[in-house]
Every structure is written in structure tokens, then in C-alpha cells.
Design a protein that fits this description.
Largest sheet: 5 strands, mixed
Helix content: 40-55%
Low-confidence stretches: none
Distance between the termini: 74 Å
Strand content: 5-15%
CATH class of the largest domain: Alpha Beta
CATH topology of the largest domain: 60s Ribosomal Protein L30, Chain: A
Number of domains: 2
CATH superfamily of the largest domain: OmpA-like domain
Number of helices: 5
Shape: elongated
């Protein structure tokens, strides 16, 4: 008796509108998810031509030490960012932030390539990385910051890259190069070329 009364009291128009509203919410969710994924993919494609021009220019440059281009590491990088790696062993004197003559020359040449391609990118972030810290020892922030700063100075003073398009970051040993602790490759400088939001006429 109670069940029949409930069925009789149910308004079919209310039930239909409730169902339609739920369908609309589900569709909005799926469309939003598809647009978000599509936008991320589009951002990567959008800067591909600019990336390829910079890569071709770097590879054509007469550099005594070739930087390593690594895939995006997704470390808070904007869409389309490129990472170029210079190993510290060939760039700095020992465990200092003092650049070798070869290191200074290579960085100057690299910076001039970037300057010649400056219409293709927005900003360059220079990250200093040191060896992974051992347990109960302080992170080597000072050395990583000094090395990144030394590279930025070369980019600006010798390479002609505008300082308002440079950023410096000290990473210490918090990001091992291949995820391996105490690997010699952890000592490096990474040049992150950011292409996002390049202004176009």
C-alpha cells in the first residue's frame, strides 16, 4: 500500500528534469576533461616549431662542449620548455663556481645562439645542481646558487641576453640527474628555455 502511494505521488516531470540535470552535469564534466587534455597537448604542439628552430641553431653552433638536450622532466616546467644540460666537470674549476676558460667560451657561444633566436622564446631559467647530499649533512645551496649566477652573468655580460629574460634557481642536490644518488652527472647546470606565452604580432 505504501509503495503504491509513493509511486502515485511521484511526479514524472520532476523525475525527468532531475535525470536531465544529472546528464548535463556528466556531459559538462567530460567536455571539461577533454578540453583540459586537449589544451595541454595543443600547448606542446604550439611551441614545436620554435623549439625546433632553437635546437637547429644550437646544433649548428661551433660549441667545444655540446650540451645535452633532455626530455621535459615535468618539474613545474611550463608547456614547451626545453632543458639543456652542461656538466659541471667541464665548466667549473673543481668544487667552485669559478668558470673555466672553456666553460666561459662555451656558455658565451650558447647564449649568443639563444639571443639570435630570442623571438622564439620567452625566458631562460638557469638552474644550478650539485651532488646529492648525504644523510645529516646540509644541502649545498650556496654552490648551486653561485654556479647558476655565474652562468647568468656570462649570458648577460658576454652573450648579450637581456637580464629581464633570465631567472636563476638553486636546486642543490634535490634532483639527481638520472634519479641516482651520488652520481657524477648530478653536478650540472640546466638551462631551461621557456617558450610559453611568446608574444606574437
Amino acid at each position: 500500500m505504501t509503495r503504491s502511494r509513493l509511486q502515485a505521488d511521484t511526479n514524472p516531470y520532476i523525475a525527468f528534469s532531475d535525470l536531465a540535470l544529472n546528464v548535463v552535469f556528466v556531459l559538462i564534466f567530460f567536455v571539461g576533461a577533454i578540453l583540459a587534455v586537449g589544451q595541454a597537448g595543443w600547448e606542446q604542439v604550439r611551441y614545436r616549431n620554435a623549439q625546433e628552430r632553437v635546437v637547429a641553431a644550437v646544433r649548428a653552433a661551433p660549441l667545444a662542449v655540446r650540451p645535452l638536450l633532455i626530455p621535459p622532466a615535468q618539474r613545474n616546467d611550463p608547456p614547451g620548455a626545453q632543458r639543456w644540460v652542461f656538466r659541471s666537470q667541464s665548466m667549473f674549476q673543481g668544487d667552485s663556481a669559478e668558470l673555466t676558460l672553456q666553460g666561459r667560451a662555451v656558455l658565451t657561444a650558447f647564449a649568443r645562439v639563444l639571443r639570435s633566436q630570442q623571438d622564439n622564446w620567452k625566458r631562460v631559467r638557469i638552474e644550478g645542481h650539485t651532488q646529492t647530499s648525504r644523510a645529516n649533512t646540509p644541502e649545498n645551496w650556496a654552490l648551486s646558487a653561485s654556479r647558476a649566477s655565474a652562468v647568468a652573468s656570462v649570458f648577460y655580460l658576454s652573450g648579450g641576453v637581456s637580464p629581464n629574460r633570465l631567472a636563476v634557481a638553486a636546486r642543490g642536490g634535490q634532483t639527481p640527474f638520472n634519479g641516482l644518488k651520488f652520481d657524477p652527472q648530478n653536478e650540472r647546470v640546466e638551462i631551461v628555455v621557456e617558450y610559453a606565452q611568446v608574444s606574437r604580432p
